[in-house]
Each structure stands twice: as structure tokens, then as C-alpha cells.
Amino acid sequence: MRNSKWYELSDNSKVISPSLLVYPQRIQQNAELMLHIAKNPERLRPHIKTHKMVEIIQLQLELGISKFKCATLSEAEILAKAGAKDVLLAMQPVSVQLEKFTELIVKYPRTGFSTLVDSMAARNAFEEVALAKDMMIALWLDINNGMNRTGIIPGEEAKNLYISLKNCPSLDVKGLHVYDGHIHDSDPILRARNCDQDYQAVLNLQRDLELQGHAIPVVIAGGTPTFPIHEKRKNVELSPGTPMLWDEGYGRNYTDLAFLPAAVLLTRIISKPDKNLLCFDLGHKSVASEMTLPRVKFLGNHDFLQVSQSEEHLVVKCRNSHLYDLGQALYAVPVHICPTVSKYPEALTVENHVITGTWTVAARDHTLNEY
User: Tens of pLDDT along 243-286?
Assistant: First the structure.
């Protein structure tokens, strides 16, 4: 296809819109760059919440990555089915989720499962279940070092909780989990400074525990924006997630990270309701919409201003709307890819401008359906 852009299909006439397109060659490049930054596959514990696809898990396994992080029980199960050796459920399971988590441990004995704990109440619940089922449950102490979403603030209470976990025969404490998703400075120097500053409390906690004879073997730290910073620390596993598909939000904010957009939405003009207005079939149900407009970046040379969005529609102002036809297909990169992927049951794979197959978004639901 001469003079075509990387994202364009040679023939989109049979593609339902909106559709999620993924580009395996770019995903491979992103995975290799992620590994290059980490320097060693053993340092990596990538999160699969962005893509939720078995094929992307398998691609990472082929690169020697064996440890993963996930957010839901269905994500944990597809990791086990794909052959992952080490899976961290990075959401503290409570109530029925705790019961289901232990069922995964029994169902997939070749995979080592672990999860998070951030309070004595949760620790006691894990111990009760472990004793009742005569099993060992592996846990990471979840640390709140500034995000204020989950975790325990590093200090005396955290130290006592870690020691209590270590002293419990039915609980296997692995180390610390520190997610610093509140750090999102565009300037990499400022980002590193803030990351190091907030991580100091973790270092202090490690030091205090070591002085009492409780050395922490491993810390899982950071997400996509900070994993290159944490790479410089010893005994730290890195947990990027977004790099596999990337998106416009991260691409715009973190220009120092050279990952490629590898997921694109194909959308069509469904109405021209007024002069200089175009309406696309790209509503809240088709793309992440938790942020302010714009919700996507249209690829190509388009003078669009996104002005409104509803469940099924995205309206843009366009000074040259007469140049666009009803039914015309355009391509757009989501500002936030993670919640966008879960809106689609499958992604269409594109290689050399041709659709080559489909990848099921296997873990889009909270409970796993067979794929």
C-alpha cells in the first residue's frame, strides 16, 4: 500500500466500527524496549491489566519473562493457563474474592500465586483461610508511599505487621509492594527526584526491619512512569503495564519513554449535524472517558476539536468538514488505553496494513469465561 501510514488498513470496508486494532510488530518492539530498560527479564514483573490478552502474555514469556502482576482473578487465571510461573494478584482479595483466590492456588499448582496485604484485619483473614484449607498463602506487604489508594503507611505499624506476617507459619511473606502511581511528572528529572523522595520511607522501613533481623528480600516497585528509575535500585522488581500497547496520554506526558502506540481505534463519521461539525461512532462505551476532552488523538493531519461525547457519539468541530464524507473511516489512539481495551471482546491484529486475525480480550470480565 503505497504512501500509507503505519496504522492504515489497505481495505477497511468490511470492518465494523468502532473496532480495536492491535499491531503485533509494534507490540514486540515495545516488549523488547521494556526488557532493554530493565536489562534482565528477571527484573520484570509486567502488569497485564492493560491488554488482558493471552497472545501478549505468550510474547513476553518467549522473551524470558516469567513473573507477572495482575488486577483481577480472571487475569490471574489466564496467566496460569498461559504458563506463567509467578503471578501476583495486586488487589487485596476480600470476602468471596479471597475464597476464589485460594481456589486458583489449588487449581493451578504449577503457578506460584501471591497477593497483597495491608492491615492486621486482612492478615488475620488470610491466616484463618490458610489454616482452614491447610495451605500456605504467599503475601506481599502493600505499602502506601504517597498514592493514598491502598497500602499501609511505612512506619511502626507497617513494621509490626511485616513481623507478624513473617512469624505466621501459614503465611509466606515475600517482601514489599510499592506502587507510586501518584508520580506522573513529565520532566524525567523531576519525576526521578519525587520518586526517590517518596521511596525514602520504604528504605527507612527496610533498614528498621533489617536491624531487627527481618531482611526484606525483594521489593516490587513502580509502574510505567517510574520503572526506569527503580531499575537502578538493587533487589527491586519492576512492574510496567502500559508499554505493551502504549497510548496518547503516556506518549504525550512521558516523551523520554520511546514506546510506540500499538493499539488504535477504527471509527467512522456517522453524521454531519451542522456546518463544521462531525460526529463519530466513538462514545463512552467505546473509549475510556474518565478524563476531560480530548479522549483520543486522531491519526493523520486533521484539524479537529473534540467538543462533546455521549454513550455512542463523539462530536468534533472541524473547519474543513466539507472534505470529509459520511461513513469515512479514521484512526485514533486512545488517551487511556487500559479501560478502553476492556470495552472490546476482541482485537483485530494488523500486519502490513492487512487484518490477519483476532486476539480475544480474554480477561475483560471479573470472572473468567473459556477462550
Answer: 999 999 999 999 999 999 999 999 999 999 999 999 999 999 99
Q: Which of 95, 115, 91, 116 is nearest to 105 (CA)?
A: 115
With cut-offs at 50, 70 and 90, classify the pLDDT of residue 3.
Answer: low
pTM (2 d.p.): 0.96
Domains of the chain and CATH, by start: 24-243 (3.20.20.10), 262-360 (2.40.37.20)
What are the cell numbers at 321?
468538514
Confidence at residue 368, expressed as pLDDT on a 0 to 100 scale:
72
Cβ atoms within 10 Å, residue 119: 15
Which pLDDT score, from 0 to 100, does residue 370 have? 55
Residue 47 to residue 87: CA distance in whole angstroms:
10
Side chain identity at 334, as an amino acid letter? P
Residue identified by cell 503505497 is 2
- For the chain, give percent helix, strand, coil, nearest 5: 30, 25, 45
Q: How far apart are CA 283 and CA 310, in angstroms?
A: 5
| Contact indicator for 266, 9 with CB cutoff of 8 Å | yes
Enumerate residues 6+ apart whose C-beta is below 8 A from 282. Answer: 18, 265, 267, 295, 296, 309, 313, 314, 332
Assess contact for 325 and 269: CB atoms under 8 A: yes
Of 279, 140, 297, nearest in space to 220 by CA? 140
Residue 358 β-bridge partners: 348
DSSP 23: -
- Cα gap 341→345, rounded to integer Å: 8
Residue 44 DSSP label: B
* Cell numbers that stand for 143 in this block: 505499602
